[in-house]
Every structure is written in C-alpha cells, then in structure tokens.
Amino acid sequence: MSPSRTKTPPPDRPAKFPKNLADDSKATKVDSFDARTVSAADVTSSLIKNGGCVLRNVVSVTDLALIEKDIRPWIEKDRPWAGDFFPPETRRVMGLVEKSQVFTERIPGNQLFREVCDTLLTSVHESWLGQKLEASVSRPQLNNTIVFSIGPGARRQELHRDDMNWHNELPTLASHEDYEVGRDAAIGFFVAGKKTTKANGATRFIPRSHLWAKTQPPNEDLAFYAELEPGDAFIMLASAYHGGSANTTTNEERLILSCFMTKGVLRQEENQYLANSLESVKRYSPDIQKMIGYQVSNPFLGWVNLEDPRQLLLQEGQELRTDLY
Ligand SMILES: O=C(O)CCC(=O)C(=O)O
Ligand SMILES: [Fe+2]
C-alpha cells in the first residue's frame, strides 16, 4: 500500500560528530580545501567546526563559460528588486533547473556538495507500526537556485541567516563538539562565476555563528570575506550569519552561482514544480530528478496518486523501478 516504505536499513550515523581536523576551538580561521582532493568527511567536519569553508576548483572554466551562455540573457532581462533585501544594482536568475542543465548538474549536482548534504541533512525517523518499529529515511532535496549578478555601487546586504525560512529555533552550543546532525535545515553553495574580492562584494560570513542562539544578533566586526577565483565555491550552513557585501568597484560585476539544499521533510524555498517545466526535468538522470524533489520523503511525503512522483517523468515505454528509492 505504501509506495515509499523504507526498504533498506537507515545509515549508521552517530548523533554527535567526532572531533576533527586541527581542533582549536578558539580559532576562527576558515578552512580552504581543494575540491578535487578533499574528502566529504573533512568538509563536513570543517562546517561543523566553523559553519563554512572555501572549496577551490569546484567548476571548470569550460563549464563556467557554458553556464554563462545559458544565464546571460536572463540576467539582462531581470529588473531591480522593489524591496530592500537586494540592492538595486543586483540582477538575478532563478529556475535554473529549466534554464541551465550544466548549472544544475555541476552546482547542486556536485558530488562533494551532495555527499556533505547527505551527511548533515538526511533524517531518519523511527515509528511503531503495530509491534514493528519502522525506520524511514528522508534524503536532502534542492531548496533553491539563484544566480546573482551584482553591479558596481551596490550597497551591502544585511547579515542574516537563511534558516529563518524554516523558523529554525537554535539554542547556543558551547562548542562545535556539541553539534548534532539535524540542527541545520539547509546548506548553501556559492560558486564564483567571476573573481570575487572584498572590494567587489564577496560574501561575508561570521565563522562559528552557527553555534549561536537564534536570539543573538550578528556582529559585522567578526566577518570573514570569501574571496574566490572563478570556479571556487563557498559552502555554508544555513544557520551561519552571512550576506553579500558592498561592491565598491566602478567596473566589476560580481557573479555568484548559488543554490541551497534542504532536508527532505521541509518545504523548498523555490517551488521546483512550478518554476521548472516537467519537460525540462525529464532531461536529467534519475539521481538529479530525485534531488530536484521528484522523490518521496519516507514514509509518505510528496507522492502523486500514492506513487513516486517520478512516474510523471517517464518517457513512452519506460517503467519506474520502485527499488530506486
Ligand atoms: O550575495 C551574496 O553573496 C549572498 C546572498 C545571500 O546571502 C542571499 O541572498 O540570501
Ligand atoms: Fe543569504
């Protein structure tokens, strides 16, 4: 009867994360890793310790050029935001699943990013079904996709936490060693489409602010600026304070290719089902389709006709292997 009953045992994950890396609890230095060689475990440990880190060489120059080709016409079509959150010099492109396959496969689809998200955003819930204890696994899903083009003269964005979206309640943690998987609702990934410097408005972030209570306001004096070469990325827990900085240059565009991943049990910020046509989602592998949100979060979230929503993506003659989830 259930299309989504868990078939495999839940992954064996400790409630608390082990001590990691150079463990100096006072240091606020942000780690920088080469994405081509670092392990997902080291990135995960670094996020738990500091709330964010830099990953070098995430997207190749060739792929950046392909993404640029897909997005530039949309950047040119966008008009200034009427509210305060983005400065008027900012142009944005959303709905990247439809607009750029290479963006979707290389940025939210990046294996390292996916593995880190799997570790920190997968939830496992146990519930009695009569006398049988059933475990349900819910895997992360794409939360949003936004390209930011931020022009010269743009003022800074206020420091904020993106997890306000989910009304996330956070108690203070005395140390990152007390961090428990499940505290964060989402993880952000900001890839530089062009060189990003403090002068042209690099994302600034407060290291270790993911350990602060929800009630604690940000403090600009503690900010670290994520300066990136094209193709490098900044990865960050959604509970960490951050914001785009002022673009003080007269002629440099800051181009950021961003996405967030969220837990499978939470509502996606960008409505993937209305932002992107079914036809555009059909182009992707089953793995990417599931990441976009075409999967059931076990036990019963997200079905269509009590079936896996990927039934809607099948081409003529294709059958869905229900053992895929
Ligand atoms: O512009 C940036 O670097 C960050 C943007 C951001 O944090 C947001 O729009 O929520
Ligand atoms: Fe943000």
- Report the CATH superfamily: q2cbj1_9rhob like domain
End-to-end Cα distance, whole Å, is 16 Å
Largest sheet: 7 strands, mixed
Strands across the major sheet, in which order?
1-2-10-7-12-6-3
Task: Note down, in words, how this protein is organized.
Helices cover 20% and strands 20% of the residues. With 325 residues, the chain is α+β, with helices and mostly antiparallel strands. The chain has one domain: Sandwich (Jelly Rolls). Helix 1 crosses helix 5. The longest helix has 17 residues. Fe (ii) ion binds next to loops.
Short summary:
InterPro entries: Phytyl_CoA_dOase-like. This protein has helices spanning 40-50, 61-77, 96-99, 101-106, 111-121, 272-275, 278-282, 286-292; strands spanning 32-34, 52-56, 90-94, 123-129, 132-138, 141-150, 186-192, 204-205, 224-225, 233-237, 242-243, 254-262. The protein is an alpha+beta fold.
